[in-house]
Amino acid sequence: MTVARINLMLAVALAVALIAALTLGEVGLSGAQYAQAFSDPGSGPGLILWQVRAPRAICAVAVGAALGLSGALMQGLLRNPLAEPGVLGVSATASLGGALVLVAGAGMVTGAVELAAMAGAGIGAAALVAFAARIRAPEALILFGVALSSFAGAATALIFNLSPSPIATAEVMAWLLGSVQNRGWADVLWVSAALVPAGILAGLSAPGLKALSLGDETARTLGLPLDRLRLLALLAASLAAGAAVATAGVIGFVGLVAPHLVRASVRADPGRVLLPSALAGGLILVVADLMTRITPTDQELKLGVFTALVGAPLFALIAWRAARAWRV
Amino acid sequence: MSATPRLKIEGLSLSRGKRAVVRDVSLSMMPGELVALVGPNGAGKTSLIQAVCGLLKPDAGRVWLEGAELVTLGPRDRARALAYLPQDGTVAWNLPALEVVALGAGFLQTDGARPRAMAALEEVEASALADRGVAELSGGERARVLLARVLASDAGLILADEPVAGLDPEGQLLVLERLKARAGAGQTVVASLHDLSLAARFADRVIVMDQGEVRADGSPAGALDTAVLRDVFGLGGRWLDSEDGPVLTLARL
Predict the structure, then answer these.
(1) Which keywords describe this protein according to UniProt (chain A) (predicted)?
(2) Is the pLDDT assigned to residue B1 strictly greater than 50?
(3) How many CB pairs under 8 A join A and B?
Protein backbone atom coordinates (compact mmCIF):
# COMPACT_ATOMS: atom_id res chain seq x y z
CA MET A 1 0.00 0.00 0.00
CA THR A 2 1.38 3.39 -0.90
CA VAL A 3 1.61 6.19 1.62
CA ALA A 4 -0.84 8.30 -0.39
CA ARG A 5 -3.37 5.47 -0.31
CA ILE A 6 -3.25 4.97 3.46
CA ASN A 7 -3.61 8.73 3.95
CA LEU A 8 -6.62 8.79 1.64
CA MET A 9 -8.21 5.83 3.39
CA LEU A 10 -7.74 7.45 6.78
CA ALA A 11 -9.15 10.74 5.51
CA VAL A 12 -12.26 8.99 4.20
CA ALA A 13 -12.71 7.08 7.48
CA LEU A 14 -12.30 10.36 9.34
CA ALA A 15 -15.03 11.99 7.23
CA VAL A 16 -17.40 9.09 7.91
CA ALA A 17 -16.65 9.26 11.65
CA LEU A 18 -17.29 13.01 11.65
CA ILE A 19 -20.68 12.53 9.99
CA ALA A 20 -21.51 9.87 12.60
CA ALA A 21 -20.44 12.22 15.39
CA LEU A 22 -22.76 14.90 13.99
CA THR A 23 -25.78 12.65 13.55
CA LEU A 24 -25.59 10.51 16.69
CA GLY A 25 -26.24 11.82 20.17
CA GLU A 26 -28.46 11.83 23.24
CA VAL A 27 -31.03 13.96 21.45
CA GLY A 28 -32.31 12.11 18.40
CA LEU A 29 -33.07 14.44 15.50
CA SER A 30 -35.58 13.71 12.73
CA GLY A 31 -34.93 14.26 9.02
CA ALA A 32 -36.98 17.45 9.11
CA GLN A 33 -34.98 18.72 12.06
CA TYR A 34 -31.73 18.09 10.19
CA ALA A 35 -33.14 20.06 7.26
CA GLN A 36 -34.03 22.85 9.69
CA ALA A 37 -30.53 22.76 11.19
CA PHE A 38 -29.08 23.39 7.73
CA SER A 39 -31.58 26.03 6.67
CA ASP A 40 -31.70 27.84 10.01
CA PRO A 41 -28.52 27.41 12.08
CA GLY A 42 -30.07 29.53 14.86
CA SER A 43 -32.94 27.07 15.45
CA GLY A 44 -32.90 24.43 18.21
CA PRO A 45 -31.64 21.59 16.01
CA GLY A 46 -29.22 24.05 14.38
CA LEU A 47 -27.72 24.93 17.75
CA ILE A 48 -27.35 21.26 18.68
CA LEU A 49 -25.62 20.52 15.42
CA TRP A 50 -23.45 23.61 14.94
CA GLN A 51 -22.78 24.82 18.45
CA VAL A 52 -22.60 21.55 20.38
CA ARG A 53 -21.82 18.52 18.23
CA ALA A 54 -19.75 20.05 15.43
CA PRO A 55 -17.19 21.96 17.55
CA ARG A 56 -16.93 19.02 19.93
CA ALA A 57 -16.31 16.51 17.13
CA ILE A 58 -13.82 18.74 15.34
CA CYS A 59 -12.09 19.41 18.64
CA ALA A 60 -11.80 15.67 19.16
CA VAL A 61 -10.29 15.26 15.68
CA ALA A 62 -7.82 18.12 16.18
CA VAL A 63 -6.77 16.97 19.65
CA GLY A 64 -6.41 13.38 18.43
CA ALA A 65 -4.38 14.55 15.45
CA ALA A 66 -2.15 16.63 17.72
CA LEU A 67 -1.59 13.63 19.99
CA GLY A 68 -0.93 11.25 17.08
CA LEU A 69 1.54 13.69 15.53
CA SER A 70 3.25 14.37 18.84
CA GLY A 71 3.56 10.65 19.60
CA ALA A 72 4.97 9.85 16.16
CA LEU A 73 7.48 12.72 16.44
CA MET A 74 8.62 11.63 19.88
CA GLN A 75 8.97 8.01 18.79
CA GLY A 76 11.07 9.04 15.79
CA LEU A 77 13.22 11.54 17.64
CA LEU A 78 13.83 9.27 20.63
CA ARG A 79 13.97 6.09 18.49
CA ASN A 80 11.65 4.45 20.96
CA PRO A 81 8.37 2.72 20.05
CA LEU A 82 6.99 3.39 23.55
CA ALA A 83 7.50 7.15 23.43
CA GLU A 84 4.33 9.22 23.74
CA PRO A 85 3.46 12.47 25.50
CA GLY A 86 1.30 10.70 28.10
CA VAL A 87 3.66 7.83 28.88
CA LEU A 88 6.82 9.95 29.03
CA GLY A 89 5.40 12.74 31.17
CA VAL A 90 5.12 15.49 28.54
CA SER A 91 1.36 15.71 29.06
CA ALA A 92 2.03 15.86 32.81
CA THR A 93 4.49 18.76 32.46
CA ALA A 94 2.00 20.47 30.12
CA SER A 95 -0.72 20.03 32.76
CA LEU A 96 1.59 21.44 35.39
CA GLY A 97 2.11 24.53 33.24
CA GLY A 98 -1.63 24.95 32.74
CA ALA A 99 -2.42 24.34 36.40
CA LEU A 100 0.13 26.94 37.50
CA VAL A 101 -1.58 29.57 35.37
CA LEU A 102 -5.05 28.57 36.59
CA VAL A 103 -4.13 28.65 40.27
CA ALA A 104 -2.34 31.96 39.76
CA GLY A 105 -5.74 33.30 38.69
CA ALA A 106 -4.68 34.00 35.10
CA GLY A 107 -7.03 31.40 33.63
CA MET A 108 -9.21 34.05 32.02
CA VAL A 109 -6.31 35.69 30.18
CA THR A 110 -6.70 34.66 26.55
CA GLY A 111 -4.18 32.02 25.58
CA ALA A 112 -2.44 31.95 28.96
CA VAL A 113 -3.34 28.34 29.76
CA GLU A 114 -2.51 27.21 26.22
CA LEU A 115 0.89 28.91 26.15
CA ALA A 116 1.74 27.68 29.64
CA ALA A 117 0.80 24.12 28.65
CA MET A 118 2.98 24.34 25.53
CA ALA A 119 5.86 25.71 27.56
CA GLY A 120 5.42 22.90 30.09
CA ALA A 121 5.37 20.34 27.27
CA GLY A 122 8.50 21.91 25.78
CA ILE A 123 10.41 21.70 29.05
CA GLY A 124 9.39 18.07 29.57
CA ALA A 125 10.26 17.05 26.00
CA ALA A 126 13.62 18.85 26.16
CA ALA A 127 14.49 16.97 29.34
CA LEU A 128 13.67 13.68 27.59
CA VAL A 129 15.81 14.51 24.56
CA ALA A 130 18.72 15.55 26.79
CA PHE A 131 18.41 12.27 28.67
CA ALA A 132 18.18 10.16 25.50
CA ALA A 133 21.28 11.83 24.06
CA ARG A 134 23.35 10.64 27.01
CA ILE A 135 21.80 7.30 27.97
CA ARG A 136 21.17 4.98 25.04
CA ALA A 137 19.22 2.18 26.74
CA PRO A 138 15.61 2.51 25.54
CA GLU A 139 14.24 1.07 28.79
CA ALA A 140 16.05 3.77 30.75
CA LEU A 141 14.26 6.47 28.78
CA ILE A 142 10.87 4.99 29.71
CA LEU A 143 11.90 4.94 33.37
CA PHE A 144 13.02 8.55 33.13
CA GLY A 145 9.64 9.38 31.59
CA VAL A 146 7.90 7.65 34.48
CA ALA A 147 9.93 9.76 36.91
CA LEU A 148 9.16 12.94 34.98
CA SER A 149 5.46 12.07 34.88
CA SER A 150 5.35 11.29 38.60
CA PHE A 151 7.21 14.44 39.51
CA ALA A 152 5.01 16.71 37.38
CA GLY A 153 1.91 14.92 38.72
CA ALA A 154 3.07 15.42 42.30
CA ALA A 155 3.86 19.09 41.66
CA THR A 156 0.38 19.56 40.17
CA ALA A 157 -1.16 17.82 43.20
CA LEU A 158 0.90 20.05 45.48
CA ILE A 159 -0.49 23.14 43.77
CA PHE A 160 -4.03 21.93 44.39
CA ASN A 161 -3.10 20.91 47.89
CA LEU A 162 -2.01 24.45 48.71
CA SER A 163 -4.64 26.20 46.60
CA PRO A 164 -7.12 28.24 48.67
CA SER A 165 -10.06 27.72 46.29
CA PRO A 166 -11.68 24.27 46.32
CA ILE A 167 -13.94 25.19 43.39
CA ALA A 168 -11.02 26.05 41.14
CA THR A 169 -9.39 22.81 42.20
CA ALA A 170 -12.43 20.74 41.26
CA GLU A 171 -12.59 22.46 37.88
CA VAL A 172 -8.96 21.81 37.13
CA MET A 173 -9.26 18.20 38.24
CA ALA A 174 -12.16 17.72 35.85
CA TRP A 175 -10.11 19.30 33.06
CA LEU A 176 -7.18 17.01 33.77
CA LEU A 177 -9.33 13.90 33.49
CA GLY A 178 -9.50 14.65 29.80
CA SER A 179 -12.58 15.57 27.79
CA VAL A 180 -13.80 17.53 24.79
CA GLN A 181 -17.25 18.03 26.34
CA ASN A 182 -18.69 21.53 25.91
CA ARG A 183 -15.84 22.67 23.68
CA GLY A 184 -16.69 25.49 21.30
CA TRP A 185 -15.35 27.01 18.13
CA ALA A 186 -12.84 29.10 20.09
CA ASP A 187 -11.24 25.87 21.31
CA VAL A 188 -11.15 24.53 17.76
CA LEU A 189 -9.39 27.69 16.70
CA TRP A 190 -6.79 27.42 19.46
CA VAL A 191 -5.84 23.83 18.84
CA SER A 192 -5.77 24.37 15.08
CA ALA A 193 -3.57 27.42 15.50
CA ALA A 194 -1.00 25.18 17.18
CA LEU A 195 -1.53 22.20 14.90
CA VAL A 196 -0.71 24.06 11.68
CA PRO A 197 2.80 25.23 12.66
CA ALA A 198 3.40 21.88 14.39
CA GLY A 199 2.55 20.12 11.14
CA ILE A 200 4.88 22.34 9.11
CA LEU A 201 7.76 21.82 11.56
CA ALA A 202 7.05 18.08 11.57
CA GLY A 203 7.18 18.01 7.77
CA LEU A 204 10.56 19.73 7.84
CA SER A 205 11.93 17.18 10.29
CA ALA A 206 10.66 14.11 8.40
CA PRO A 207 13.76 13.32 6.27
CA GLY A 208 16.01 13.80 9.27
CA LEU A 209 13.97 11.39 11.38
CA LYS A 210 14.57 8.68 8.80
CA ALA A 211 18.33 9.24 8.87
CA LEU A 212 18.18 9.22 12.66
CA SER A 213 17.06 5.56 12.51
CA LEU A 214 20.74 4.72 12.08
CA GLY A 215 21.70 6.42 15.35
CA ASP A 216 22.92 9.91 16.27
CA GLU A 217 26.52 9.46 15.14
CA THR A 218 25.81 7.84 11.80
CA ALA A 219 23.06 10.34 11.04
CA ARG A 220 25.48 13.19 11.67
CA THR A 221 28.06 11.69 9.33
CA LEU A 222 25.32 11.52 6.68
CA GLY A 223 25.13 15.30 6.83
CA LEU A 224 22.20 15.61 9.22
CA PRO A 225 22.25 18.83 11.29
CA LEU A 226 21.25 17.00 14.46
CA ASP A 227 20.74 20.00 16.73
CA ARG A 228 18.48 21.66 14.19
CA LEU A 229 16.44 18.48 13.76
CA ARG A 230 16.05 18.09 17.51
CA LEU A 231 14.88 21.67 17.82
CA LEU A 232 12.35 21.33 14.97
CA ALA A 233 10.91 18.03 16.16
CA LEU A 234 10.85 19.11 19.80
CA LEU A 235 9.05 22.34 18.98
CA ALA A 236 6.51 20.50 16.84
CA ALA A 237 5.90 17.77 19.43
CA SER A 238 5.58 20.32 22.27
CA LEU A 239 3.25 22.62 20.34
CA ALA A 240 1.00 19.68 19.48
CA ALA A 241 1.05 18.02 22.91
CA GLY A 242 0.67 21.35 24.73
CA ALA A 243 -2.29 22.36 22.58
CA ALA A 244 -3.93 18.97 23.08
CA VAL A 245 -3.56 19.17 26.86
CA ALA A 246 -4.69 22.80 27.05
CA THR A 247 -7.81 21.99 25.03
CA ALA A 248 -8.80 18.61 26.37
CA GLY A 249 -6.70 17.78 29.43
CA VAL A 250 -4.67 14.61 29.66
CA ILE A 251 -5.69 12.02 27.10
CA GLY A 252 -3.26 9.15 27.21
CA PHE A 253 -2.19 6.47 24.78
CA VAL A 254 -3.62 7.97 21.56
CA GLY A 255 -0.14 9.26 20.74
CA LEU A 256 1.22 5.78 21.36
CA VAL A 257 -1.33 3.71 19.51
CA ALA A 258 -1.88 5.86 16.40
CA PRO A 259 1.69 5.55 15.02
CA HIS A 260 1.67 1.80 15.66
CA LEU A 261 -1.53 1.32 13.71
CA VAL A 262 -0.05 2.88 10.58
CA ARG A 263 3.67 2.14 10.88
CA ALA A 264 3.69 -1.04 8.80
CA SER A 265 1.82 0.66 5.96
CA VAL A 266 4.65 3.20 5.55
CA ARG A 267 7.35 0.52 5.83
CA ALA A 268 8.37 1.85 9.26
CA ASP A 269 9.70 5.15 7.89
CA PRO A 270 9.62 7.49 10.94
CA GLY A 271 9.25 10.53 8.67
CA ARG A 272 6.43 9.19 6.53
CA VAL A 273 4.54 7.91 9.57
CA LEU A 274 3.85 11.47 10.78
CA LEU A 275 0.84 12.40 8.62
CA PRO A 276 -0.98 9.06 8.83
CA SER A 277 -0.35 9.07 12.61
CA ALA A 278 -2.06 12.44 12.90
CA LEU A 279 -5.00 11.23 10.80
CA ALA A 280 -5.25 7.98 12.78
CA GLY A 281 -5.07 9.92 16.06
CA GLY A 282 -7.93 12.16 14.94
CA LEU A 283 -9.96 9.14 13.89
CA ILE A 284 -9.34 7.29 17.16
CA LEU A 285 -10.32 10.26 19.30
CA VAL A 286 -13.48 11.24 17.45
CA VAL A 287 -14.65 7.61 17.56
CA ALA A 288 -13.69 7.30 21.24
CA ASP A 289 -15.56 10.52 22.04
CA LEU A 290 -18.60 9.25 20.19
CA MET A 291 -18.44 6.06 22.27
CA THR A 292 -18.38 8.05 25.53
CA ARG A 293 -21.41 10.01 24.33
CA ILE A 294 -23.58 7.10 23.24
CA THR A 295 -22.63 4.74 26.07
CA PRO A 296 -25.63 4.91 28.42
CA THR A 297 -24.19 5.99 31.79
CA ASP A 298 -25.57 8.42 34.40
CA GLN A 299 -22.40 10.50 34.39
CA GLU A 300 -20.89 10.92 30.93
CA LEU A 301 -17.69 8.92 30.61
CA LYS A 302 -14.58 11.09 30.53
CA LEU A 303 -12.68 10.72 27.26
CA GLY A 304 -9.31 10.50 28.99
CA VAL A 305 -10.58 7.74 31.26
CA PHE A 306 -11.95 5.84 28.28
CA THR A 307 -8.76 6.08 26.17
CA ALA A 308 -6.65 5.02 29.15
CA LEU A 309 -8.85 1.97 29.76
CA VAL A 310 -8.42 0.88 26.15
CA GLY A 311 -4.90 2.24 25.63
CA ALA A 312 -3.09 0.90 28.69
CA PRO A 313 -3.49 -2.78 27.71
CA LEU A 314 -2.32 -1.86 24.20
CA PHE A 315 0.70 -0.14 25.75
CA ALA A 316 1.48 -3.35 27.62
CA LEU A 317 1.24 -5.31 24.37
CA ILE A 318 3.53 -2.92 22.48
CA ALA A 319 5.98 -2.95 25.42
CA TRP A 320 6.01 -6.74 25.31
CA ARG A 321 6.92 -6.74 21.64
CA ALA A 322 9.47 -3.93 21.99
CA ALA A 323 11.19 -5.63 24.92
CA ARG A 324 11.63 -8.78 22.85
CA ALA A 325 13.18 -6.76 20.03
CA TRP A 326 15.56 -4.98 22.45
CA ARG A 327 16.79 -8.27 23.86
CA VAL A 328 18.24 -9.34 20.50
CA MET B 1 55.18 17.73 -5.60
CA SER B 2 53.19 14.97 -3.92
CA ALA B 3 49.40 14.57 -4.17
CA THR B 4 47.08 15.91 -1.47
CA PRO B 5 46.50 13.28 1.22
CA ARG B 6 42.93 12.03 1.51
CA LEU B 7 43.25 12.30 5.27
CA LYS B 8 45.83 14.16 7.28
CA ILE B 9 45.96 14.20 11.07
CA GLU B 10 48.42 16.35 12.98
CA GLY B 11 49.08 16.18 16.71
CA LEU B 12 45.63 14.88 17.57
CA SER B 13 44.88 14.40 21.26
CA LEU B 14 41.55 13.48 22.70
CA SER B 15 40.16 12.62 26.10
CA ARG B 16 36.96 11.05 27.30
CA GLY B 17 36.13 12.36 30.72
CA LYS B 18 39.51 12.78 32.37
CA ARG B 19 41.12 9.85 30.56
CA ALA B 20 43.36 10.61 27.57
CA VAL B 21 42.31 8.15 24.84
CA VAL B 22 44.29 9.51 21.87
CA ARG B 23 47.70 11.06 22.45
CA ASP B 24 49.45 13.23 19.90
CA VAL B 25 48.64 11.15 16.82
CA SER B 26 49.89 12.32 13.42
CA LEU B 27 49.03 10.35 10.31
CA SER B 28 48.53 10.84 6.63
CA MET B 29 46.64 8.59 4.23
CA MET B 30 46.66 8.58 0.46
CA PRO B 31 44.01 7.60 -2.10
CA GLY B 32 43.87 3.87 -2.81
CA GLU B 33 45.09 2.66 0.58
CA LEU B 34 43.41 0.03 2.71
CA VAL B 35 44.65 0.81 6.19
CA ALA B 36 44.06 -1.59 9.07
CA LEU B 37 43.89 0.06 12.47
CA VAL B 38 44.78 -2.55 15.08
CA GLY B 39 45.40 -2.55 18.80
CA PRO B 40 44.05 -4.03 22.01
CA ASN B 41 40.69 -2.95 23.46
CA GLY B 42 40.91 0.62 24.72
CA ALA B 43 43.82 1.47 22.41
CA GLY B 44 41.91 4.49 21.05
CA LYS B 45 40.92 3.14 17.61
CA THR B 46 37.23 4.05 17.84
CA SER B 47 37.98 7.45 19.36
CA LEU B 48 40.42 8.24 16.56
CA ILE B 49 37.87 7.24 13.90
CA GLN B 50 35.13 9.27 15.57
CA ALA B 51 37.37 12.32 15.83
CA VAL B 52 38.08 12.11 12.10
CA CYS B 53 34.31 11.96 11.53
CA GLY B 54 33.93 15.11 13.60
CA LEU B 55 31.87 13.27 16.20
CA LEU B 56 34.34 13.83 19.03
CA LYS B 57 36.01 17.14 19.68
CA PRO B 58 39.78 16.86 20.06
CA ASP B 59 41.65 18.57 22.88
CA ALA B 60 44.40 19.45 20.46
CA GLY B 61 45.48 18.82 16.91
CA ARG B 62 44.03 19.28 13.45
CA VAL B 63 42.40 17.08 10.82
CA TRP B 64 42.24 17.70 7.05
CA LEU B 65 40.06 15.89 4.51
CA GLU B 66 41.31 16.33 0.92
CA GLY B 67 43.29 19.31 2.08
CA ALA B 68 40.29 21.07 3.70
CA GLU B 69 40.39 21.41 7.45
CA LEU B 70 37.64 19.38 9.13
CA VAL B 71 36.45 22.19 11.40
CA THR B 72 35.79 24.43 8.39
CA LEU B 73 33.52 21.85 6.70
CA GLY B 74 29.75 21.92 7.18
CA PRO B 75 27.73 18.71 7.76
CA ARG B 76 27.02 18.25 4.02
CA ASP B 77 30.65 18.68 3.00
CA ARG B 78 31.76 16.20 5.64
CA ALA B 79 29.18 13.70 4.40
CA ARG B 80 30.53 14.08 0.88
CA ALA B 81 34.10 13.57 2.06
CA LEU B 82 33.67 10.54 4.32
CA ALA B 83 31.45 7.55 5.05
CA TYR B 84 31.36 6.04 8.53
CA LEU B 85 30.43 2.48 9.44
CA PRO B 86 29.99 2.35 13.22
CA GLN B 87 30.55 -0.68 15.37
CA ASP B 88 26.98 -0.52 16.66
CA GLY B 89 24.75 -1.63 13.82
CA THR B 90 21.42 -0.89 15.46
CA VAL B 91 18.67 0.41 13.17
CA ALA B 92 15.79 1.78 15.21
CA TRP B 93 12.94 0.84 12.90
CA ASN B 94 12.17 -2.05 10.60
CA LEU B 95 13.03 -0.10 7.44
CA PRO B 96 13.44 -2.02 4.18
CA ALA B 97 17.10 -2.82 3.52
CA LEU B 98 17.12 -0.80 0.31
CA GLU B 99 15.95 2.31 2.18
CA VAL B 100 18.73 1.92 4.73
CA VAL B 101 21.33 1.55 1.98
CA ALA B 102 19.91 4.54 0.11
CA LEU B 103 20.54 6.69 3.21
CA GLY B 104 24.22 6.20 2.41
CA ALA B 105 23.76 8.48 -0.57
CA GLY B 106 22.91 11.31 1.83
CA PHE B 107 19.98 11.83 4.16
CA LEU B 108 18.25 14.14 1.70
CA GLN B 109 17.81 11.52 -0.97
CA THR B 110 18.21 12.47 -4.58
CA ASP B 111 16.89 10.56 -7.59
CA GLY B 112 20.15 8.70 -8.02
CA ALA B 113 20.07 7.24 -4.51
CA ARG B 114 17.94 4.16 -5.31
CA PRO B 115 19.98 2.83 -8.27
CA ARG B 116 23.18 3.44 -6.35
CA ALA B 117 21.77 1.65 -3.32
CA MET B 118 20.74 -1.31 -5.48
CA ALA B 119 24.21 -1.48 -7.01
CA ALA B 120 25.78 -1.41 -3.54
CA LEU B 121 23.52 -4.25 -2.39
CA GLU B 122 24.62 -6.27 -5.43
CA GLU B 123 28.23 -5.54 -4.53
CA VAL B 124 27.78 -7.28 -1.17
CA GLU B 125 25.75 -10.09 -2.77
CA ALA B 126 22.59 -9.03 -0.95
CA SER B 127 20.23 -7.90 -3.71
CA ALA B 128 17.68 -10.43 -2.52
CA LEU B 129 17.43 -8.58 0.79
CA ALA B 130 16.42 -5.24 -0.78
CA ASP B 131 12.77 -5.40 0.23
CA ARG B 132 13.24 -7.17 3.57
CA GLY B 133 12.91 -5.25 6.83
CA VAL B 134 16.28 -4.86 8.56
CA ALA B 135 14.88 -6.01 11.90
CA GLU B 136 14.08 -9.38 10.32
CA LEU B 137 17.61 -9.97 9.01
CA SER B 138 20.22 -12.20 10.63
CA GLY B 139 23.31 -10.55 12.08
CA GLY B 140 25.37 -11.42 9.03
CA GLU B 141 22.74 -10.17 6.60
CA ARG B 142 22.38 -6.91 8.50
CA ALA B 143 26.16 -6.40 8.47
CA ARG B 144 26.14 -6.73 4.66
CA VAL B 145 23.31 -4.23 4.34
CA LEU B 146 25.08 -1.74 6.60
CA LEU B 147 28.29 -2.18 4.62
CA ALA B 148 26.33 -1.56 1.43
CA ARG B 149 25.06 1.68 3.00
CA VAL B 150 28.67 2.88 3.23
CA LEU B 151 29.48 1.65 -0.27
CA ALA B 152 26.51 3.58 -1.67
CA SER B 153 28.32 6.79 -0.77
CA ASP B 154 30.99 7.95 -3.17
CA ALA B 155 32.99 9.58 -0.38
CA GLY B 156 36.74 9.45 -0.82
CA LEU B 157 37.29 8.12 2.69
CA ILE B 158 35.57 5.10 4.24
CA LEU B 159 35.99 4.68 7.99
CA ALA B 160 34.82 1.26 9.19
CA ASP B 161 34.88 0.48 12.90
CA GLU B 162 35.24 -3.27 13.38
CA PRO B 163 33.43 -4.14 10.16
CA VAL B 164 33.93 -7.90 10.60
CA ALA B 165 33.09 -8.22 14.31
CA GLY B 166 30.56 -10.98 14.89
CA LEU B 167 30.59 -12.24 11.30
CA ASP B 168 31.14 -15.82 10.17
CA PRO B 169 34.34 -16.53 8.18
CA GLU B 170 32.65 -16.17 4.82
CA GLY B 171 31.13 -12.85 5.87
CA GLN B 172 34.47 -11.59 7.15
CA LEU B 173 36.19 -12.38 3.86
CA LEU B 174 33.38 -10.84 1.83
CA VAL B 175 33.51 -7.57 3.77
CA LEU B 176 37.28 -7.27 3.53
CA GLU B 177 37.33 -8.24 -0.14
CA ARG B 178 34.80 -5.50 -0.93
CA LEU B 179 36.68 -2.90 1.08
CA LYS B 180 39.90 -3.96 -0.63
CA ALA B 181 38.22 -3.60 -4.03
CA ARG B 182 37.08 -0.08 -3.12
CA ALA B 183 40.62 0.83 -2.12
CA GLY B 184 41.79 -0.63 -5.43
CA ALA B 185 39.34 1.70 -7.17
CA GLY B 186 40.88 4.74 -5.49
CA GLN B 187 38.94 5.24 -2.25
CA THR B 188 40.83 5.33 1.02
CA VAL B 189 39.60 2.74 3.49
CA VAL B 190 40.42 2.73 7.19
CA ALA B 191 39.17 -0.34 9.05
CA SER B 192 39.75 -1.12 12.69
CA LEU B 193 40.27 -4.86 13.12
CA HIS B 194 40.92 -7.22 15.99
CA ASP B 195 41.97 -10.12 13.80
CA LEU B 196 45.67 -9.50 13.10
CA SER B 197 45.84 -12.32 10.56
CA LEU B 198 43.07 -10.73 8.51
CA ALA B 199 44.72 -7.34 8.85
CA ALA B 200 48.01 -8.83 7.67
CA ARG B 201 46.34 -10.50 4.73
CA PHE B 202 44.17 -7.66 3.41
CA ALA B 203 45.71 -4.37 4.44
CA ASP B 204 48.20 -2.37 2.40
CA ARG B 205 49.28 -0.71 5.57
CA VAL B 206 48.85 -1.49 9.26
CA ILE B 207 48.75 1.09 12.04
CA VAL B 208 49.20 -0.33 15.53
CA MET B 209 47.74 1.71 18.37
CA ASP B 210 48.28 1.18 22.07
CA GLN B 211 47.14 3.39 24.94
CA GLY B 212 46.19 6.16 22.54
CA GLU B 213 49.51 6.27 20.72
CA VAL B 214 50.67 5.01 17.35
CA ARG B 215 53.19 2.27 18.12
CA ALA B 216 53.91 1.10 14.58
CA ASP B 217 52.92 2.17 11.09
CA GLY B 218 53.94 0.44 7.89
CA SER B 219 53.50 -2.60 5.70
CA PRO B 220 51.83 -5.51 7.52
CA ALA B 221 55.10 -7.38 7.98
CA GLY B 222 56.91 -4.18 8.93
CA ALA B 223 54.33 -2.97 11.48
CA LEU B 224 53.51 -6.32 13.02
CA ASP B 225 57.04 -7.38 13.84
CA THR B 226 58.06 -9.58 16.74
CA ALA B 227 58.69 -6.70 19.13
CA VAL B 228 55.33 -5.01 18.48
CA LEU B 229 53.42 -8.30 18.74
CA ARG B 230 55.12 -9.00 22.06
CA ASP B 231 54.94 -5.51 23.61
CA VAL B 232 51.49 -4.44 22.44
CA PHE B 233 49.55 -7.68 22.19
CA GLY B 234 51.53 -10.03 24.43
CA LEU B 235 51.77 -12.45 21.52
CA GLY B 236 54.43 -14.37 19.71
CA GLY B 237 54.12 -14.41 15.95
CA ARG B 238 55.74 -15.78 12.86
CA TRP B 239 55.42 -14.77 9.26
CA LEU B 240 55.17 -17.73 6.90
CA ASP B 241 55.37 -17.68 3.13
CA SER B 242 52.39 -19.05 1.23
CA GLU B 243 51.00 -19.02 -2.28
CA ASP B 244 48.76 -16.08 -1.34
CA GLY B 245 51.66 -14.10 0.12
CA PRO B 246 53.03 -13.87 3.66
CA VAL B 247 50.75 -15.27 6.40
CA LEU B 248 50.93 -14.28 10.06
CA THR B 249 50.54 -17.02 12.66
CA LEU B 250 50.10 -16.10 16.30
CA ALA B 251 50.63 -17.81 19.64
CA ARG B 252 50.29 -16.76 23.25
CA LEU B 253 53.62 -16.13 24.92
Answers:
(1) Cell membrane, Membrane, Transmembrane, Transmembrane helix, Transport
(2) no
(3) 82
